[in-house]
Amino acid sequence: MSSVKRTSRDIRTANRYEVLRQIIAESPTSRQELAAATGLSLATVATLVGELLDLRLITEVGFEDSAGGRPRGLVAVNTTGGALIGVDIAETYVRVELFDLALNVLARADEDMRPGESRPEQVVGHVAAAVGSVVTQAGVEGARVLGVGVSVPGQVDREGGVSEYAPNWDWHDVPLLDLLAEHIAYPLYLDNPLRACAVAELWFGAARGRGDAVVVNLGTGVGAGLVLGGGLHRGVSNSAGEWGHTTLVLDGRLCHCGNHGCVETYVGAPGIMLHLRELAPQSTLLHPEDQTATIDALARGVADGDPVALKVVRDTARYLGAGIADLVNLLNPEVVVLSSWVAATLGEPLLAEVRQAVARHSLRRPLDAAEIVLSPIPTDPVCLGAATFALEGALSSFSQRPARRAVPARSRTASAS
Amino acid sequence: MSSVKRTSRDIRTANRYEVLRQIIAESPTSRQELAAATGLSLATVATLVGELLDLRLITEVGFEDSAGGRPRGLVAVNTTGGALIGVDIAETYVRVELFDLALNVLARADEDMRPGESRPEQVVGHVAAAVGSVVTQAGVEGARVLGVGVSVPGQVDREGGVSEYAPNWDWHDVPLLDLLAEHIAYPLYLDNPLRACAVAELWFGAARGRGDAVVVNLGTGVGAGLVLGGGLHRGVSNSAGEWGHTTLVLDGRLCHCGNHGCVETYVGAPGIMLHLRELAPQSTLLHPEDQTATIDALARGVADGDPVALKVVRDTARYLGAGIADLVNLLNPEVVVLSSWVAATLGEPLLAEVRQAVARHSLRRPLDAAEIVLSPIPTDPVCLGAATFALEGALSSFSQRPARRAVPARSRTASAS
Ligand SMILES: [Zn+2]
Ligand SMILES: [Zn+2]
């Protein structure tokens, strides 16, 4: 039996994503402009626009004159047609954002998690409280929330809604969506930050309209979300992207995965801190228990020309560049995006060093084809990506034939929080 | 502008590949069996079967009884409906095979290339002579040869028919198809051995019916052909798969690409020979100027329990396992296939060591999903894959609407050889 089933239904869903993505990027717009931007035929675009209008995700907003021809109908995102919620469960905090359908942030709630406060019930409590808070803040009726996307670090069974393994909390097989469904009445979608950041870039960032892109996530953990053939590459069991555990130094530093010399042990925030400590144990840049404060201090140090800070960033970029060159050689992407908080904090100086290091390690042909950029997304890409999973869920559950209307991957109707 | 244009035409071509692949694997077969095997609807299968019948690639071969129902029409590959030629240009030889449409080898010609005999005109002369030989041997009329696929090592501009860079011969921007077209009158298709081996596995080997597969090529050079989402992943400039230049040992052995510590410098045939020489300079296993003889001797040594041979293979598997674990973690494939002559020669003992090494280096979830196998293809996978590119070309050039009949990517009509 073939495990490859590409149907016209799959391609219609992919094209529906593509058209909505383009309308969100440029509203108002005409069917003719959409056809030109997506490469789809005008007839296909007209059908897909009709479906999006039926779904009330977009709306007709008048006409524009075309030179000499008939006036063209314009459509735009129906910003008030529904709301989406994105949940970023991180090691030390939970952040929840509520978006309109143009993916503007309407409300935000942050909950700190103290060390030791990492039992699943505790985390679920924080998420439920923050979701309740954003709905109240935004004054959105529950019925208008189309879905809640939840990002949790580590290995995720997306279909089952299970956090299979979260290394920082030592979670194993936690049925996270079942627990959340006891408090949250909206359709729930689970995935991890790697894929959330990748889908955020695909819809709203540097990967939009690109066939092949790699979104390198630099935070406490490290990974690479893959956009291949214009869509998210998940792999056969939804665990693709674990680039952080690529061997960069055979027999190098011990990693929590059990392997030695993983990329993550050199370029994740704890790895960068370790390097700083080894280089200058007494440095005032070092905040031993605080990753965020240390990376902030390094960024300021680089701006001030501090030689230790410069060396730490340059060495980090050297490891990162060797690892990214491997991705460029292997996948031949159009763009490599540096995302997440370590990349955002170290910014342009890190990018400049990384570009040089990648150029030293890559083959010419794939190097010439690959742009390397910082993520252009100004808000939390994990919340944005998680909300996008909810939007994709809403789009996928729509069928032209009402009799065969599909059920969302994970639709819950337990009592509201 | 979007560079992502997935049209119903693309999907129809992909589905046509899928149906023909299945018919080649199991002839005769019914439309009902094809629908079950591919996951496509019976109506879609019926349309695609009709197209393949029109192309004379398949033929009606009678009926089978279905339990109680109407007899079902059977189709089979029209083995004599045309011929395909695959050309494997390697460092030391040119091999050409002529296939029927079931991809059985009907004729083979080998030409040795002496050291120094590597100017493009010399290589082209060998290819032209061997192509002429197989056509004569098989007694095939020129008109029945549907196309010639040509594999050349290194970086290839497929659309332009140019060998951009072949490291072992120091070729730069050689217009190989233009040179070949002066001698060969059939449609020509150019690509490299990585992708030839991958497409051979996709159509006829261990990647058939798998969504995501990695075909690791172990020869003089090393690379990884990628099958993602059920199709060959080429990357934005057709250079994906250069896994041989992944950094495995930061600041390790110098590679011809200019980088240090590349996978290829440890697990390519010259790297294995270097390791043997370092370990036991006087070993009788070593044939200093002959890679093939050395790898053959290592295989015999392992079978005889020679401790040096065992250590060389174990150490090679350790490097290989670390590198393959990176691919498993990053791409989460269903299957990893070890292909090309070094893998075929070292065989099961290498496979067993590689499996252990991959298990030591991979994360559990992607490891559990990934099978690791030797290529099951009994003939030269590069010739087979190259011929498959010609078959794909013939299938892609077919359109349902004669008025818009497409021209093959590289169709030449110069004088016959
Ligand atoms: Zn690791
Ligand atoms: Zn190299």
From TrEMBL, chains A, B:
It holds the Pfam family HTH_24. InterPro entries: ATPase_NBD (IPR043129), ROK (IPR000600), ROK_cs (IPR049874), WH-like_DNA-bd_sf (IPR036388), WH_DNA-bd_sf (IPR036390). Belongs to the ROK (NagC/XylR) family. This is ROK family transcriptional regulator. It comes from Streptomyces heilongjiangensis.
